[in-house]
Amino acid sequence: MAKMQRVLALYDTPPADGRVICVDEFGPLNLMARKGKAWGPVRPPRRLRATYNRYGGVRHMLAALDLATGKLYYRIRPRKRWREFLGLLKALRTHWPEENLYVVLDNFSPHKHAKIHVWAADNDVELVFLPTYGSWLNWIESEFAALRCFALNGTDHRSHDEQNAAIASYVRWRNARAKPKTNFAPDSPVRKWTNYPAWAA
């Protein structure tokens, strides 16, 4: 319960001395045909490849959602180890050098690496971990659903450069229309629970 209440408190009343950032990984980004909805063509519909290969490997998106502006920041990397995660944190620290950062994140093992904790403690970054099975509390999850719908569904990219360009185009469009994130799940029953399950502790 304490972890959930901490996250909800940050969402409802962001600290005056910094900003709240939701962080997570999205992927793996395969080069594969993805089904999706589109306007029905006059001609016969395009057919999707039945199979695909991974000759080009996969990519992973490490992303951060700034609740104060609603903007999405990201980087795409071949792997998602603690080193890549630390690189994202350093980029966020550089973007807001004078503010404390409250980073909401899940319990993925690279997030808990000892070097991550040491760096965060030395750089005014508080790591706010979600409760177990509480990924729905991470506000960035809804952004991933939108990214999948608008940038990936119905595509069949043949290179990572092509796929990355589609993602970048969507994020630019989205950030140009971003608004501050407020009122997280205001009508959700979780805000009224009195008997919390064990995983919320």
Secondary-structure map with pairings?
Blueprint: H1 2-12, E1 18-29, E2 59-66, E3 72-77, H2 82-95, E4 100-105, H3 114-122, E5 125-129, H4 140-152, H5 160-175
Principal-axis shape equals globular
- Number of self-contained structural domains: 1
CATH architecture assignment name? 2-Layer Sandwich
Query: What's the Cα radius of gyration?
Result: 19 Å
CATH topology-level fold name: Nucleotidyltransferase, domain 5
- Indicate the CATH class: Alpha Beta
How many DSSP-defined strands? 5
Structural class: alpha/beta
Main sheet: strand order = 3-2-1-4-5
Q: What is the end-to-end distance?
A: 4 Å
- How do the helices and strands follow one another from N- to C-terminus? HEEEHEHEHH
What is the number of helical segments per DSSP (H or I, 4+ residues)? 5
Work out the strand percent.
15-25%
- Indicate the multimeric state: single chain
Largest sheet: 5 strands, mixed
Low-confidence runs of at least 5 consecutive residues: 194-201
The CATH homology group name: Ribonuclease H-like superfamily/Ribonuclease H
Helix content: 25-40%
- Can you give the mean pLDDT? 88
